[in-house]
Amino acid sequence: MSSLAHYLSGFLREYLPCERRASQHTCETYAYTFQLLVSFAASHLKTQPSKLKLECIDVPLVVTFLNQLEEVRRNSSRTRNARLAAIKAFFRFLEYRLPSALDQARRIHAIPMKKVDEKLVGFLTRKEMQTLIDTPDSRTALGIRDRAMLYLAFAAGLRVSELVGLRLDQLHLNPEPLIHVFGKGRRERVIPLWKETASVLRAWLAVRVDSIAHELFLNVQGRPMTRSGFKYILSKHVNIAIAKQPTLARKRVSPHVLRHTCAMHTLQATNDIRKVSLWLGHADMKSTEIYLRSDPSEKLEALTAGSPLLLRRGNFKAPDKLIAMLKAKN
C-alpha cells in the first residue's frame, strides 16, 4: 500500500508550484482542502494522519467528506465543488506516477459536481460606496490606510488576493497614475487610476512605516496585509457605515462585492461589456455576462423598443355575498 503523505507532499510542494506554476493562493487553497480531508479521514478511520494510505481515499470516504462539509461546516455548493476539484487534480497527478491508482482515480473523477444557483451579483450603489469610503478616520495612519485600500479595491476592481499582494513596484504615480496587476491565471493587466485614487495612495505612502516587506499595504505589525485582515477591516467599516446608510444593513458586503460594484458602475457608465471584461481581467467574456443579468438598463431598452399587446376589457361581475357564503358552507 502507498503512503498518502509521500504523494501529497510531491503534489503540493513540487507539482503545483513548479510544474503547473500555480499561484500561491491556489497552492494555499489546495493545501487547506487536503488539511480538511486528511483530518476527516484520520478521524473517520481512527488512525494518525501521517499513517494514512492512499488506498483509503476512496469514493465512499470522499463523498462522506463532501457531505460533512455541507452539513456540519455549512459550506456552500460552490465551496464543495472547489474542494472536489482539488481532490480530482491530485488524482490526475497520480495517474502518471502511480499506475496502480488508475482505477481509483477513475472512480474519483466520476464523482459529479453539484449544480449551483446562478444568483444575481450583489453590489453597492454609488451613495453606499461613497459612505463606506468616507468611514475611515483620515486623521490616523490606520484610517488613511483603510481608506486607500477600500478606494483602490473599488476603483480598480481588484480581487482581494490582487489587493493584498500588490507590491510597491507595481504602483506608478508619475507621470500618469496606474497599477500593474498580476491577476488570476497569471494574466497581467495595467489599470489607470483616478486622481482621487492616486491622492489617497500618496497619503498612505506618506505615513507608511519602513518595512522589509515589499507589499503596498501593511498591517499594524508592519507585515503584509492578509486576505482575512482586509476582510476584517471591511467588515468593521461596514458596521460603522450602517449608521449613516441603513441600506447597507440589508446587504452582505464582502471584499468581492467591491469588485462587483466596480464592474456594475463601469457597465452603467460605458454600456460596454467588453470594457468591463478588460478592466476586471476576465479570460472569457462569459465570466462578465453575469453583470448584464443584474443591470436592468438593457432590458428596459428592449421593453421600450417593443409594444405591449392590447387587453380587451372584460365584464366583471362581483359574486353575491350570500351565495358565496352558502357555497363556503357546502
Description:
The protein is mostly helical. It has 2 domains: 106 residues; 175 residues, hpI Integrase, Chain A (Orthogonal Bundle), CATH 1.10.443.10. 55% of the residues lie in helices and 4% in strands. The protein has 15 helices and 3 strands. A hairpin with a 5-residue loop joins strand 1 and strand 2. Helix 4 runs antiparallel to helix 5. The chain starts with a helix and ends with a helix. 27% of the residues are buried.
Features:
single chain, 3 strands, 2 domains, hpI Integrase, Chain A, 330 residues, three-stranded antiparallel β-sheet, 15 helices, mainly alpha
Largest sheet: 3 strands, antiparallel
Report the C-alpha radius of gyration, rounded.
Answer: 26 Å
Secondary-structure element pattern, one letter each: HHHHHHHHEEEHHHHHHH
Poorly predicted regions: none
CATH superfamily of the largest domain: Intergrase catalytic core
Name the beta content range. under 5%
Overall shape: it is globular
Q: How confident overall, as mean pLDDT? A: 88
DSSP helix fraction: 55-70%
Task: Kindly give the count of domains.
Answer: 2
Number of strands: 3
Within the largest sheet, what's the order of strands? 1-2-3
* Structural class category: mainly alpha
CATH topology of the largest domain: hpI Integrase, Chain A
**Oligomer type:** single chain
Count every helix, treating DSSP H or I runs of 4 or more residues as helices.
Answer: 15
Span between termini: 75 Å
